[in-house]
Design brief:
Elements: H1 2-6, E1 8-10, H2 12-27, H3 34-55, E2 63-68, E3 73-74, E4 79-87, E5 93-99, E6 112-116, E7 121-128, E8 134-138, E9 141-146, E10 152-158, E11 162-167, H4 170-177, E12 201-207, H5 219-225, E13 229-234, E14 240-246, E15 254-255, E16 258-259, H6 260-277, E17 281-287, E18 291-298, H7 303-312, H8 323-333, E19 339-343, H9 349-365, E20 367-373, H10 376-382, H11 389-414, E21 418-422, H12 427-440
Parallel strand pairs: 3-11, 14-17, 14-19, 19-20, 20-21
Antiparallel strand pairs: 1-10, 2-4, 4-7, 5-6, 5-9, 8-11, 9-10, 12-13, 15-16, 17-18
Helix pairs in contact: 2-3, 4-6, 6-7, 6-12, 8-9, 10-11
Amino acid sequence: MIRFWQHITLRNRFFWWLGGLIILYTVSFFIPFLYPVAIVAMLFFAALTLVDAALLFIVKQPLSVSRRLPQVMSLHDENEVHLHITGRFPAGLRLRIIDELPQQLQKRDLELQYRLPARTSRELTYHLRPLERGAYHFGKVHIFISYLFGLAERKVSIDLEDMVKVYPSVMQMKKFELYTIRRIAHFQGMKKMRRIGHSYEFDQIKQYVPGDDVRSLNWKATGRSASLMVNHYEDEKAQQVYCLIDKSRTMKTPFDGLSLMDYAINTSLVISNIAVRKEDKAGIITFASKVNTVLRADRHAGQMRKILELLYNEKAIPEESSFEHLYYQVRRHVHVRSLLFLYTNFESYYAIERALSVLRKLNKLHLLVVVFFENEEINRYGDQDAGNTESVYLTTFAKRFTLEKQLIMQELNKYGIQTIITSPSDLTIHTINKYLELKSRGLA
């Protein structure tokens, strides 16, 4: 009997009816002929509730439930979780389902409601959007079932402890892979770049057609064939592409639930995958006050797995970034001219002045692309109309901050350093565009 009451809860409908009966009972003190009616109604209601609760136990195990998780979850994407429910009850049930979610999600309001027909199986789906990398542990599934009058519920708890790892955005990696090679033009925000320079690998000699680069004319072949012939080149293969990720305190700034470092990690995964697909070599270097991890560039079959595991384990470090130490380690580990994507964030002109000498040295040895971020909230604030003296001051400060970012970009460009300044949400698209642009121009 004790166990019976432990698994029974009363629904809101029960308390609504009980409230009505209490009102009827109160009124009966002033209208005496209602008193017997109130007593009979109260007894009938109590019997109805007991019958409703007892009927829920006519089947010992009314339900079986299984949870199906993806093999890995993708950071900052909508991931599907499936609950497969099989009913063994001889009649239809009303279900209220509560799944114990990982504590990282901080989600306590997930409740699924469903009507399950008699002796049938159904699959319910809900979505989760994780904002942290790491191991996520799921707990029990609690199902509250009600039947007939819907006054009482039976609680059924099923132990379905599961663990799934949340990796950098694998979904985003696959999504952008589909639109990269020769099909970039079909994706919003991307454009196909016309080849305007030479790569280093000769492809073939073809007859000249209008639009070909006249600097590629092959005069010897032209003399032999009596028609203009040009050399055609293809992208250099097996070039090294490194993503240099700043893990210092400047990259902990949040945007839409993720830190700037997480956006850089997601984009590094996408760029590395595209580089490997284009037969380049991809590598990763992370740093703060010193270089923490170095994964040498390669393109073998297991390289993307190594990159994924490395990025999965990276954590932000509350330190200042040391570009001098980064330069020393790049000189030590990267021995051939490579394409370097440096993900960092310069908040002031003073910050770029400190780092500029080192960045210029890096750019002499390699093709350096400095990627840093706009502050969208400050940009929006600067676009607002000022209504009083205080708002004039704040708006002016916001515009100055935005202008300073543009000055940083101009200073880098002055010394021949490639730059990308972007909002975090557009980081991946702009970085892919830059990579393909450099490849098409024969600079990378």
